[in-house]
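Can't attach files on this board, so I'm pasting raw text. These are the components:
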Amino acid sequence: MELYVTSHDSLTGEIIERPMNDVEIAQYEIDQATYLSEMAEAEAKATAKAALLDRLGITADEAKLLLS
Amino acid sequence: MRLFHCQPQSSEIVLGFVADSSEATGLRWSAPSSGAMTKIVSGSVGEPYTQPTSALNINNCFSSTYNKYIVYLEMGGFGGTTQSWFRFRDNTTDRTGDYHTTGLQYNEANTLTTLGIIPSTSRITLGTLSGENTYTCQYLINVYAGSSNGSMAWGSGITFSDVSGPQTVTFAGTHATNNANGFTLLRQDGSTFYCKYAVYGLEK
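---
Top answer:
Structure tokens for the assembled complex are below.
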């Protein structure tokens, strides 16, 4: 998949459409890795939370009530 | 409703009090305000249902002329249903780290999705953008930028997911970028999108 960038310069009005350069592609790859890592971390937290609620034998709403 | 345009006839009439009075009461004539909100740039990339772009950079829209801005976006996505992201730019380079953000997204079942609640992340998440390009999302973003006190963006919008219908979204984020002069829009997975955009500067 070739990634394209559109740039609009507000001062000159110039609009350029071009393929992403090497720096932008490298950032794109970092973004993918970072996002997947963040999602995995969030999912692990959610799983741990569900397991804890299960051990306690209460629902998420009941846990909120306890902490309110 | 009828509008009347009145011309002052003398300084006493204009000011509503005599020349030697020390009391500043009564009506006062003043020049109409102008330039309170000024369009800086607008345009579109791609059109609905055609092949658009993977990233949109708006350069030189923030400057020392203003420090508060309104950004209006109308976006539609192609490909999968993924997040759309906002980043500040500085001298035509994306600022890709150290954002502090929060965001909430509710769908029509009132189910909450939290967005970008990470102590330090690489972007401000605007919400989930459907891969069905007929679902147009709209965002209204307040921006504080172009000053030496960092940059902020916060706003709200309506997004559509092809799996959960309309969603309301609110988001906010800060970045340490001083004198940010633009922003970029992109999607989490590099999928393409079309976008109509307008940036307005608010008088200081």
